[in-house]
Amino acid sequence: MAPHQVELESSFNFSGNGDNQLADGIATDKQNGLQTLEDQANGHTKLTAPAQQPLELAPAPSVDEALSSHPPVPTKNQYRDGNGLSRNGNTDYDCVADKARRGEEIELLKGQKPGQKFVLTIMGYRKEGLSEEEYREYMVEVHSPMVRCLMARYGTERWTMIHNTSTTRALMAKIFDPQFANVSQLDCFIQAVFSSIEDIMAMKADPYFKKYITPDHENFADTRGSHDRGIHPLSQGTIADFSGPSRMTIGYLEEFIADGQVLEEPADLDAVFEKQASVLRAREEKRKLETEVGRQVAEGRLDEVLAR
Fold first, then answer.
1. What is the pTM (predicted TM-score) of this model?
2. Peptide bond just before 245 cis, omega within 30 deg
3. CA–CA dist 83, 184 (Å, integer)
4. Within 10 A of 179 (CB to CB), how many other CB atoms are there?
5. What confidence tens digit (pLDDT) does each residue in 205-237 have?
6. Cross-strand partners of 160
7. Residues 24-45: pLDDT tens digits?
């Protein structure tokens, strides 16, 4: 078995010919899709990645230099009072989260609900040469203590890491089915919850972050896709394996269950299913309309299109 592959059950255990046909169809689609990826990897399809500017980093300081020269790393309590509001320490930054707590009006982005948080999500791959254990240990015991209090100072409200190892990834075999068939090869899934992008921008501009945190990413993360794990064809009992670099995005946070409690129970499930049917009907009507308009345009019947 190739490195980082996950051994899965060799067949679907479904009753009824319809389910088996669905499983066979999905397996065929995955086979075709992965063959396309393999063709691309072998140069049959030329893909051009956008040019990346080299990241210029200052040489990492020695341990003695770091201990003697860096500004005091704040503890959470140094910069938060009993109500969770910022206190002046060695920064006067007033984060957006604190403004929201004080009841100040916060400008909303398109699609953002009042009080809704943002989440910075990082899909992380480990640096080439690091084992899963080394990667996890460094992130938890070195990188996290260096930055987590700084993040709290600049308004980060929650920060989590999900480390996906060969052992935990193999557990997917226990819930494998046609829909739960695409197993991710990410080494870590990191999420930080915050109220405004301005808070993250201010944190990244902090001298401590620029001097110590930015270069430290190069000590554990695959930031350039240098760790080529290869693309393996899907075959019975294995799953595709993809490589870095680490990627990230920002999105809105929607919460439904916290601490084992449903935050808002649906008042009427019948209404929910009625909405489902209505949404699906509307999608089908939209698809039919787009198909008809496309046919009219192709046939040069623009007068009919404009008359709609």
1. 0.62
2. yes
3. 40
4. 9
5. 999 999 999 999 999 999 887 655 544 444 434
6. 191
7. 544 444 444 444 434 443 443 3
